[in-house]
Amino acid sequence: MKDASNPPVTTEGADHPLKRLREFTEARIGLGRYGAGLPTAASLDFAEAHARARDAVHSSFEAQVIAVTLEEAGYETIAVESRAQDRATYLRRPDLGRKLSDRSRERAAAIPGGPFDLVVVVADGLSATAVNAHGAAVATGLLAALPGDWNVAPVVVATGARVALSDPIGEALDAKIALILIGERPGLSAANSLGAYLTFGPRTGRSDADRNCVSNIRPGGLRPEIAGKKLAGLIVRAAEARTVRHAAEGRCRRPDRRRRLWPAADRLRPFQSLQTVWRRRFSESLPGTGAARPAGDDLPGGLFPQPRGKSARPPFEAVLRQHI
Amino acid sequence: MSQESLKTLLAEASPARSGDFLAGVTAESQEARVKAQRRLADTGLAEILQTPLIDPETDEVQRLILDQHDREAYRPIAGFSVGDLRDWLLSDEATSEAIAALKWALTPEMVAAVSKICRNQDLIAIARKRPVVTKFRTTVGLPGRLSVRIQPNHPTDDAKGVAASILDGLAFGCGDAVIGINPATDSPSAMRRLLELIEELRLRLDCPVQSCVLAHVTTAIDCMSRGAPVDLVFQSIAGSEKANSSFGINLAMLKEAQDAAKSLNRGTIGQDVMYFETGQGAALSADAHFGIDQQTMEARAYAVARAFDPLLVNTVVGFIGPEYLYDGKEITRAGLEDHFCGKLLGVPMGVDVCYTNHAEADQDDMDNLLTLLGVAGVNFVMGVPGSDDIMLNYQSTSYHDAAYVRRALGLKPAPEFEAWLREVGVFDGEGFLLPEASRGDAGLIARSKLLEAAE
């Protein structure tokens, strides 16, 4: 399913002999040609999709508006920024987007009431368009669905953020769990997709192998109106399973065993491990979304697109670390 | 010269790119960069040869680079500086044969060094003189020819979706490099299913192409041991042992895969069975660059490639993102450098002319680079329906683009494939795409029986 706002691939070449096969793929097949050139409509369709994605990458983050919306809904917020001072630096230096500015760290560390069970971070990422559109709605849906006895930190609205910025944020606030809602790298079919990345024990230096994510939150994907509640349910179940396992097995110190503390994948299907997401390169429809083409955060997708061996970690985990 | 000073010199002499800034290895100013280029131009090839950038004791790629070096072939240029080498390569003395004779004399560091003091036109003019020809069922890399990989990716590996994209590509005269699918699922069964799909199509159409499913090398080895129809074995490679190990591979595994694929004896006119992909920034992203600039690291990956007689090597130049190559200018430069370095080292270079949506690049930049590479004699480029890879989520060159550059520069497909295209009525007698109205492709589609399968 495509966004209503997305144009059809093209109507040019509607009598193309491959027309009947378009139902099997969203690939831009059977476009027709003039000489070797693309028909005008197909050329402009592509240009429009790309322009939309470019605009999303460079759109300005309405952090204030999001903060006001959240506060009107009854949730405290604090604003932080990464060390990437502007968009050009943000794109060139993902390492800076993973670090809090000194001022922000101090501000977060000064928040009373910790330790917290959970901190929710709403962040621009690679598509402020996505977060502006439904970041606040997903966050409020999530917060409203959490158990009343959870000690939840003020919502952090983060500018210039990569996924891993949730580590120093969680650390400064002394939170047990960090969930970051972040704009994903825009694709040609969707420029308004949010990702949700969950980290238990967020601390600077966590590997992305330690995170789990739900991708493709957008109209036409996992719908923002229901995403928050869904995420809350997944977080609570995951946390419970973790607590039960901790109680049964004692504290797990080996990082390589951390993943096993997650509930069985079949019960938490949308909450796939990053590795699984990586392996599928955001290519598989998430249940209930009907979307054939979820975009990834800023995951590279597959320059070297294969997992290492049959069951092991993805080979490009290091790239993941760089990119997220 | 010490290892550190050579690394620094190479890095500071590198034309600016974001990945080197990210790694913190660039020159301090533009003037400092040119001064480094002057010093590099005056540096002897012998000094470079004597200064391995990574300790060979700990890095099998470094050992391979040293083992590959042929002292006999090197003798005529042993007294050259980097600047001398550039001048000679540009000179009329440097014929195709003369450059080819240096294949095992040149090391990755030497060609990386010389590329750093070349302008784009030098990179084109020199690479043009160094064709690298390889064979399996088609002959790839002959002068005056440009091959295309059909990249019919699909988010769920849907057989009909993949087949539809393949047919669209064949009707544009693409596919003579390879029909190569990035699978959504990396498993022996998924790989086999896709291989059999292409195999059936190939046999039904009696089409001289080779197939590849770009799964991990271990998956391919597994598939071959179960008798799957594997033509080419794919693997991503990089320029250090540590970076390769981040891909879950080492040289011995590549050798095992090459031997296994050759033993299947599936090539009709040659047995070049490997397909490698590389890209600037890969080693840095795995923190396996050892303080070496990304372009030099990339050239080192070609030492790995040429050890296994690949049919195709492809630098996926704009894929990795703007933190490595920021914009159209950097992507263009890197594509030309990679092609140049690969060719001088005797590697059958193709280029995935591509970009992501967060890079400062667009279709115009890709048109430029594609045209430049066509002039430079690139062996092959990608063909993605409408430039939009719906699985990997990035933009590459399209079937249309391939047809454009062949027409604009008078380039033809691989000869075996050209003959087939004429026979099926897609190409005219001169070897160029017929007007669409003549609908040679309709016959092709009929023969594929794909529409019937879709009913």
Describe the structure in your own words:
The complex is a heterodimer of chains A (324) and B (455). Chain A contains nine helices and seven strands, in the order ααβααβαβαβββαβαα. Chain A is α/β, with parallel strands linked by helices. Chain A has two domains: 1-58, Orthogonal Bundle (DNA Binding (I), subunit A), CATH 1.10.30; 61-323, Ethanolamine ammonia-lyase light chain (EutC) (Rossmann fold, 3-Layer(aba) Sandwich), CATH 3.40.50.11240. Chain A has a seven-stranded mixed sheet with strand order 1-3-2-4-5-6-7, with helices on both faces. In chain A, helix 2 packs parallel to helix 5 (128-144) and helix 4 runs parallel beside helix 6 (166-173). Residues 1-12 and 249-324 of chain A have low confidence and may be disordered. Chain B is of the alpha/beta class and 455 residues long. Chain B has two domains: 3-128, Orthogonal Bundle (Annexin V, domain 1), CATH 1.10.220.70; 134-436, TIM Barrel. Chain B is 48% helix and 9% strand. Chain B has helices at residues 3-12, 18-23, 30-41, 45-49, 60-68, 71-74, 82-90, 96-100, 108-116, 120-128, 159-170, 188-205, 217-225, 241-246, 251-264, 282-285, 294-306, 328-344, 363-376, 399-409, 415-424, 440-448, 450-454, and strands at 134-135, 139-140, 147-150, 178-181, 211-213, 233-236, 274-278, 310-316, 349-352, 380-383, 388-389, 394-395. The termini of chain B are far apart. In chain B, 62% of the residues are buried.
